[in-house]
From TrEMBL:
Domain Ketopantoate reductase C-terminal: 181-300
Domain Ketopantoate reductase N-terminal residues, every copy: 5-150
Reactions this protein catalyses: (R)-pantoate + NADP(+) = 2-dehydropantoate + NADPH + H(+)
Name by which UniProt lists this protein: 2-dehydropantoate 2-reductase
Enzyme kind, highest EC tier: oxidoreductase
Length: 304
């Protein structure tokens, strides 16, 4: 039994998770600070379109202060910068044996997840499932995969339960004993594609040319070299395959960083490119293209 499930973050990806989990028959509530979005979910449920077919489900929806615990599984889909505040908002809902799963972009989230409660099992997940919220409907471009794992062997039972939950909701899931390579591969993908698309102000397909691919390839190589120097077996071939798939099959997708820029919100540049540049310095590896993209996005940040 999974008990009660909460998806924290009612954006495109969080809504897709909540909708599919609800459609699978599990009890799930969507938690967010956007009261207008929660009201919309309460009134109309969540609609998403995949393979040209529109689907619908009615998960619960409420702000954290209006929910009673316990929650057994938390799925955090918030932006990286919002993750600590999101965790603080739901601490009162944690059970003695809660599992907390972070889908936030970037690096080093496991310590943040542990702040939910002393007995929380933190899991780290990355996904290439794409989701865009367009006129109240979640548009998802293909199935994609979720890679999920824990910080040590004691997490295996929680990983198995989370895998079963997400597979039952029709996601493709690959459980892992060590999720760090997948996390760094996703970070390399995001550092390249998200930052470049944001600077260009265009969907990812706009980068499918010689100049765009040169930048994406250079960033991927830099980030993988940092991961390898840290003893993490991230694979360049995996990153480049995912970049190629995004360019060829998801050309009209606007990455979350670009969506933030479009909405005038701060981006996740510090959690992705910024964190990579910082960690590169610790192993004395120069990452000039990754650093340049970070600085270009920073110049355009609304706080600058």
């Amino acid at each position: 039994m999974h008990g009660r499930i909460a998806v924290i973050g009612a954006g495109a990806l969080g809504s897709l998770f909540a909708g599919r989990i609800a459609a699978s028959g599990r009890e799930v509530v969507t938690i967010d600070i956007d009261l207008a979005r929660l009201s919309e979910i309460e009134r109309h449920g969540i609609r998403w379109r995949e393979n040209g077919i529109e689907r619908h489900a009615r998960p619960g929806a409420a702000s954290a202060r209006n929910i009673d615990g316990p929650i057994n599984i938390f799925l955090f889909t918030t932006k990286a910068a919002a993750l600590p505040a999101a965790i603080r908002s739901v601490k009162h809902l944690a059970a003695d044996d809660s599992t907390a799963i972070s889908f936030s972009n970037g690096l080093r989230h496991e310590t943040t997840l542990m702040s939910l409660s002393g007995d929380t099992t933190p899991l780290l997940a990355v996904t290439d499932v794409s989701a865009d919220l367009v006129a109240g409907v979640i548009e998802t471009h293909g199935r994609g995969t979720i890679w999920i794992g824990g910080v040590d062997a004691s997490s295996r039972r929680a990983v198995a339960a989370a895998t079963e939950l997400l597979r039952h909701a029709r996601f493709t899931v690959e459980p892992q004993d060590d999720p760090r390579p997948s996390i760094w591969e996703k970070a390399a993908f995001n550092a390249a594609l998200n930052a470049t698309a944001t600077i260009a102000g265009k969907p990812v397909g706009f980068l499918d040319n010689a100049s765009g691919r040169w930048i994406l390839d250079a960033v991927a190589r830099e980030v993988v070299s940092v991961a390898n120097a840290l003893g993490i077996n991230a694979r360049l071939s995996t990153v480049l395959e995912r970049v190629d798939h995004a360019l060829s099959a998801q050309g009209d997708h606007r990455p979350s960083m670009l969506q933030d820029r479009d909405a005038g919100r701060p981006t996740e540049i510090e959690a992705i490119n910024g964190a990579i540049v910082e960690m590169a310095g610790k192993v004395n590896i120069d990452v000039p293209v990754t650093r340049t993209l970070a600085n270009l996005v920073r110049i355009l940040e609304p706080t600058q």
